[in-house]
Amino acid sequence: MNALVRLWPRLRPGPALQVSVAAVLAAFGVGALLIAALGVPVGDAVAAFAEGAWGSAYALAASINRALVLMLVGLGFVLAERASLTNVGGEGQIAVGGIAATALALWPPVAQLPWGLAFIVPMLGACAAGALWGGIAGVLRVKMGTNEVIATLLLSFIAIWMVYGSVQSEHLLRRPMTSSATLPESLEIPVSTQLPLLTGDAGTPLHIGLLLGVVLAVAVALVLNRTVTGLQLRAAGLNPRAARRAGMAIDRLAIGALCAAGAFGGLAGAFMLQGEQYTLKAGFSSGYGFDGLVVGLLARGSVPGVVAGALLFGFLRSGGINMEMVAQVPTALVVVIQGLIIVMLAGAALGVQRMEARRT
Questions:
Q1: Which region among 141-150, 243-252, 267-276 has the lowest average model confidence (pLDDT)?
Q2: H/E segment holding residue 107
Q3: CB neighbour list of residue 183: distance below 8 Å, 6 or more residues apart
Q4: Which region holds residue 200: left if phi is over 0, alpha if psi is between -120 and 50, else beta?
């Protein structure tokens, strides 16, 4: 007992965590007031939200799957941020990853591969496509001085239209038209290329991407905090001129960081196609890239912060969908609550910084 008392000051949540939790709770409180202003009983809305977010095994698994996609985009953002690069192209990287994963999954030789390679190869293709998309922005920055924010954002718009074009043409990925009612989407990918479920039960659709996501989160944390590469990224971000004089390949680090961020976004696209949707449609990315960007921003360079933010926004998405269907609360209100969380967390971070400045 005495040992626990001595250890408690180390285990006790710090001011930053306390203020962040208070900010999130305050955002939910304002959201409850907005729900009441719409004339919807707050209790009914909260019950519908809880049911959609974690009220059943299916809902819980779907929320975690959504959080995995957001986490991957957030991890990519944090990697690039360590080198003082801002990757806002998660949406486009998801899009090109989805195109690559679908094309490979629908290619007969891939679907017939043994030993799990049938679902691994499309995932690797998606990573390669996302890395290429991020690498283009990196090369533009290094060779032409183009701001990576502008480059990644504009590349996202191109990628989104590429998805649209892919599912509109039968020469590309559109399913054969049997009638005028045939939707502009791809064929469903073969079962062998879909991500295996951890439980083997479709009623709990938690797929193997969870294990891969945990491994990748740990790997990113180790790379950033325990390796020479992480130190070089930090040095390149803090003082590129000094890092270059120290013999570091600054240009290569910048391109590599954006390639890695793009690869994470491409893998997120593969998770969406191979683990949940199974067909490529226009708009399939549904804003996950931009939500993942917010997750990365709020994490402030922390991998645990990325995981926590991804879970929060993943559950918000699932709960908001059910809240609209059951309690007739507009999904736009969930977007408003997300915005409130962002604003209040940003304000909380500023407050914590001022507190620490006064203390020092």
A1: 243-252
A2: none
A3: 175, 281
A4: left
Task: Give the Å distances, CA to CA, from 161 to 13, 95, 178.
Answer: 45, 9, 24
- How many Cβ atoms sit within 10 Å of the Cβ of residue 174? 19
Q: What is the pLDDT of residues 313-349, one digit of tens each?
A: 999 999 988 898 888 888 788 888 888 887 887 777 6
Place of tokens 């940003």: 346
CA distances from 352 to 1, 18, 228, 275 (A): 32, 10, 30, 39
Task: Name the residue with tokens 């690069």.
Answer: 85
Contacting residues for 40 by C-beta, under 8 A, at least 6 apart: 327, 328, 329
Model confidence at 4, pLDDT cuts 50, 70, 90, reads: very low
Crossing angle of the two packed helices 90-105 and 117-144, in degrees rounded to 10: 140
Closest residue by Cα to residue 122 from 261, 256, 273 = 273
Instruction: Give me 287's structure tokens.
Output: 């804003």
Token pair for 49? 């939200």
CB 126 within 8 A of CB 115: no
Residue with tokens 């409130």: 340
Q: Give pTM, 2 decimals.
A: 0.91
Domains plus CATH for the chain?
44-174+182-352 (1.10.3470)
In the three-class reduction of DSSP (H, G, I as helix; E, B as strand; rest coil), residue 281 is classed as: strand
What tokens appear for 76 in the block? 């990519």
Is residue 10 pLDDT above 50, yes or no? no
Q: Is 259 exposed, middle or buried (0-12, 13-18, 19+ CB in 10 A)?
A: buried
Please, are residues 134 and 259 in contact by the beta-carbon 8 Å criterion? yes
Helix orientation angle between 250-272 and 228-238, rounded to the nearest 10 degrees: 110
Residue 186's H or E segment, with its range, is none
CB 133 within 8 A of CB 327: no
Per the DSSP assignment, residues forming a β-bridge with 281 are 185
Question: Which of 108-134 are b and which e, b meaning 16 or more Cβ less than 10 Å from the residue's Cβ?
Answer: eebbeeeeeebbebbbbbbbbbbbbbb
For residue 265, count other CB atoms closer than 10 A to its CB: 40
